[in-house]
Write a structure and sequence with these properties.
By secondary structure, the protein is mostly helical. It is built from three helices and no strands.
Length: 80
């Protein structure tokens, strides 16, 4: 399932998530958008995780970490 649309959707949801988190301060929506971005893996999805280059792993894990941070901000800042 190699599709160039995956790259476009990944970058689009990534940009939307960062915009929502950094400028709109809507952390829960940001976490949702960043999570949806992970669904559209921009790399070769037929390749096993263990065979992927380190750069691809770092990009995807960084996306997951930022998503978790936005989720934490959303929960932590909304308990006031």
């Amino acid at each position: 399932m190699k599709s160039p649309i995956n790259k476009i959707l990944y970058v689009g949801f990534l940009a939307l998530g960062l915009y929502q988190g950094l400028f709109q301060k809507d952390y829960m929506q940001s976490a949702a958008s960043l999570g949806i971005a992970l669904v559209f893996d921009p790399f070769n999805v037929d390749q096993k995780w263990s065979e992927r280059p380190a750069v691809q792993k770092i990009i995807l894990i960084s996306n997951l970490a930022v998503m978790a941070a936005m989720f934490g901000f959303g929960i932590g800042l909304n308990d006031r």
